[in-house]
Each structure stands twice: as C-alpha cells, then as structure tokens.
Design a protein that fits this description.
It is built from 13 helices and 13 strands. With 372 residues, the protein is an alpha/beta fold. β11 and β12 form a beta hairpin.
Length: 372
C-alpha cells in the first residue's frame, strides 16, 4: 500500500514534534514512575507493525498524532513502523526508550516477542498502551476492537450471503485465517468458528504467516486443487489483503466475477471497498479507526498524568493477555460493511469519498453509476 519512498522513511525512527512543544517533563522514564502534566507536556512514542496493511499509515498514525496534539499540545511525539519485522520493532522501541519517551503505544508485530519490550519499558517506569493487538508482558492498558466479535461478524455475514444465494448445502467453505503470531487472529478465528461450526462444512483451513496476501493466494490455490473451484461456496478471509489473494486465485482458476463465492474481509481498505462495489468481495469488517486512535490518545494521556482511565461512552473491562495477566481494556464494536451500507459507513464518516472509490475501472460499476 505504500511506495518504496514511504517505506524507507517510516521504517526508520522518526521524531515528530507537536506544535509548540519545546519542553518535556523532567523525570520521564524514571524508575520512580513519576507522573507528568498536560501543561508541561511529555514524550509519547507510537510503534506500528507493518506497511502492507493500508490502515496503519493512512489512518492510525495520522489520527493518533492529531488526537494527541489536540489533547496535549505541548507533547512530543515519536513514530516508527516496523514493516513487519520483529527485530526492527524491538530496535525502534529501544531507540525510543533511550530517547526518553514517557509513554509507549505499541501495536506489536509479534505479541509474544513484544514481552521483552514491555518488560524493558516497565523497568524504566514507562507505561505501555497496547494498541489494536494485546502484547504480552503486562501492558498497562489495551485499546482495540472486540476481536472475538469481529470473527462472529465475518461468520454471520458469510452465512447470510450463502443463505441468500441458496448455496449452504451445495459445497464447502475455505477459511483463510490471520497470522499465528497475532493474538487478534486467534480471536477472529474463534469467533468465526463459534458461528460456522455445525452450520457449514469447512473444506480447507489455513493460518497465514504475516497476513500475507501472496501466501493467501497460494493457500487458496491449494484449496482449489483439493476441493475444486465449483465446490467452494464461500471464503472466510480474515482481512482485505488476504481476501484479495483468495479472489485472485479463484479468478486465475477461471471463476468469473459473477460466479465468485462470497468472500469476507476486514479493515475496510479502499481496495476492499472497490472489490465490494465491483462484486468481487462480499463484505469487510469496518472498524472506525479515528475513534480508536482518539481513545488510545486519551488513555495515553491518562496514564502519563496518573489519572484514572476514562473510556468515555465505552466500558472499561479486564482481559487476560497470553501469559494470564489481566489488563485494563477498552473494546469498540465492529460493523459489517457490504454494498448496502458503503454510503452509511466509510463515505459518511469521511474515510473515502465516492470519487476515490469510483476511480478508474470502478466508475463503470452500478454503485458508481448511481453515486456519481
């Protein structure tokens, strides 16, 4: 999703000072865990996991930076993207800790491997907010969407689509799950199975390293070989990138667009929305990122200033990480996005304009002909 120039820039640690920031509270990162003030400002570091998931560079990073500047105008902000590399993220985190960040906001490439970073931050009195993925090691707070519910929404949508097409008894589905190193993927998978098990036959199922669309293509090719394209009546793909890989494999096997089985996705990427309006992908899970980023910024400020976490309209709950430690957590509700509610979701929320969705070949779709 990003060009080589962007990858080169964001893979390296970049320090971005918020407007008017010329001071950091003394004692940041002290083992005493001193608190800070919004008036004086403090130093926040944001670590995102990869460049191939479109949302991180396009939305999470700028939305979080904007929200932090609004809530703490005198704060300093550091940002880095690991480009899918565990070691690179650890290096970036260590650089931020050395530079004196007072709070670390971490979307881990590998949740288990991130425990070392979390422990190092804790030893320096630096609280860690797990963002989007629950890192291990005893983070101080977690802000994400209800990942189990995401899987349920995907499963419910897939069943509804097959029931609408009258194909539920005519074949099998393929499940293309997320990365085995991502705890969210396990939650998505469990939620989907809760809905699908006993309702439909699962012919092939895969866990996909690094959420790779290319690997998803290879897996789908294997499913087609094993089952036959005519026997595949649905594909539960855990995100939009892998949905694109599964669809590419089906099309390469000679399946026409009008004959594609319903395929799920997640993240409401622009390419995913375009596949939906073109009739290639049935749905995606829409997770409105701006409220998530704003909430994460609020939790960051709460932790830095020693305040109680204020989740606003959301509920503060407790979740266990992979090592069994309970974490203060705030979970947002996902939405199923299909052709029927494109306008009511990503368009009305200002994520994409109709003109962006309808660029190039997509201008000829029925949706775009009516919308433009």
């Amino acid at each position: 999703m990003a060009g080589g120039g962007l990858a080169a820039v964001t893979a390296a640690l970049t320090l971005v000072a918020s407007t008017g920031c010329d001071a950091i509270t003394s004692g940041g990162g002290d083992e005493d865990g001193q608190t800070h003030s919004v008036e004086e400002g403090f130093h926040v570091g944001l670590l995102l996991p990869d460049l191939y998931t479109a949302r991180y560079e396009a939305f999470d990073y700028p939305y979080f930076e904007e929200a932090l500047e609004e809530q703490c105008p005198n704060c300093e902000f550091s940002y880095a993207n690991a480009d899918g590399e565990v070691d690179e993220q650890q290096t970036q985190a260590q650089a931020m800790l050395t530079d004196g960040v007072d709070v670390l906001v971490l979307d881990a490439v590998d949740a288990e491997a991130a425990a070392g970073t979390v422990n190092e931050a804790s030893s320096q009195g630096v609280p860690v907010v797990a963002y989007d993925r629950l890192a291990e090691g005893g983070v101080d707070a977690y802000v994400s969407f209800d990942n189990h519910r995401v899987g349920q929404v995907q499963g419910e949508s897939l069943l509804a689509a097959m029931e609408e097409e009258g194909t539920t008894g005519d074949g099998q589905i393929v499940m293309v799950n997320g990365s085995p190193t991502d705890p969210n993927a396990a939650e998505f998978k469990a939620g989907a199975h809760e809905v699908l098990d006993g309702q439909i036959e699962i012919g092939q199922e895969y866990d996909t390293p690094d959420w790779s669309p290319e690997e998803a293509t290879t897996q789908m090719e294997g499913a087609i070989t094993a089952l036959g394209s005519d026997e595949i009546i649905g594909v539960l793909a855990a995100n939009d990138g892998m949905a694109s890989g599964a669809i590419a494999a089906l099309q390469s096997a000679g399946v026409a667009t009008e004959d594609l089985p319903p395929v799920t996705g997640q993240d409401a990427e622009l390419a995913g929305i375009q596949r939906i309006v073109a009739g290639e992908q049935y749905m995606t899970v829409y997770k409105e990122i701006r409220p998530q980023a704003e909430l994460a910024a609020q939790v960051t400020v709460d932790l830095a200033t020693g305040s109680e976490i204020e989740p606003g309209e959301h509920t503060l709950t407790q979740l266990e990480d992979g090592s069994g430690q309970e974490v203060d957590s705030v979970l947002l509700e996902p939405v199923a996005l299909t052709l029927d509610n494109v306008d009511e979701t990503v368009v009305s929320d200002g994520v994409y304009t109709v003109e962006e969705i309808c660029e190039g070949e997509y201008a000829d779709t029925d949706y775009c002909q009516e919308a433009l």
